[in-house]
Specification:
The protein has helices at 23-52, 70-96, 100-123, 128-157, 159-165, 169-174, 178-194; strands spanning 16-17, 21-22. The protein has 195 residues and is mainly alpha-helical. The longest helix is centred in the N-terminal third of the chain and has 30 residues, at 23-52.
């Protein structure tokens, strides 16, 4: 369903991250932490693929993050690389006060959470510590996704919502809102058709 710019979204939007940090700063911190974690994971998996595959044929690869085969390690490496890329795109777009990279980042985080839950369901023994870990990590992931989504919504709304999120009027003046861009293009088409 499409929503008009003036309609209120049924999901409440956060104004701060963790109750005391401006949303812009909180999402920037999340992006940096994601890039650090992804970079470290890429380094570990890359080294493991390079040096772990050089072991003798009789040695079995030890378990690394639920991945049992070289193919699954390469798949995890590609997902980690994508996480790094989306986090960097969101980081750059938050600095520019543009919502597009932020939107794709929270969409990728939702996909990543769904894949994590699927992998848990397929590989877990369903012990109490695993279930506790699943609940805590899912709640933290959902909160982070909510923060990222809230920043995207604040950028889309602009004005007071963006100011509460930590953007100055100068930040927002550099980039017109998506709705304003569409109106400007339609106005340009009208002028071109008139001429």
């Amino acid at each position: 369903p499409t929503s008009k710019m003036g309609e209120e979204n049924p999901v409440p939007r956060l104004d701060t991250c963790c109750g005391c940090i401006q949303l812009k700063i909180g999402v920037l911190i999340l992006c940096v932490l994601q890039m650090i974690a992804s970079g470290f994971m890429m380094l570990v998996i890359g080294m493991y693929i390079l040096f772990g595959s050089m072991s003798s044929a009789g040695d079995s690869l030890p378990l690394l993050g639920g991945a049992f085969t070289l193919l699954s390690l390469i798949f995890v490496l590609m997902l980690t690389l994508a996480e790094f890329g989306f986090a960097m795109w969101a980081f750059i777009d938050v600095q520019r006060a543009e919502p597009q990279g932020v939107r794709y980042y929270y969409m990728f985080k939702l996909l990543s959470l769904a894949l994590s839950l699927l992998m848990f369901a397929l590989t877990s023994y369903w012990t109490s510590p695993e279930i506790l870990n699943l609940v805590v990590s899912t709640l933290v992931s959902l909160y982070c996704i909510w923060c990222i989504w809230s920043l995207h919504e604040a950028l889309m709304l602009g004005g007071e919502a963006a100011a509460k999120a930590g953007f100055s009027s100068e930040d927002l003046a550099r980039v017109p809102l998506m709705g304003e861009q569409k109106k400007q293009r339609e106005g340009d088409k009208d002028v071109a058709a008139y001429i």
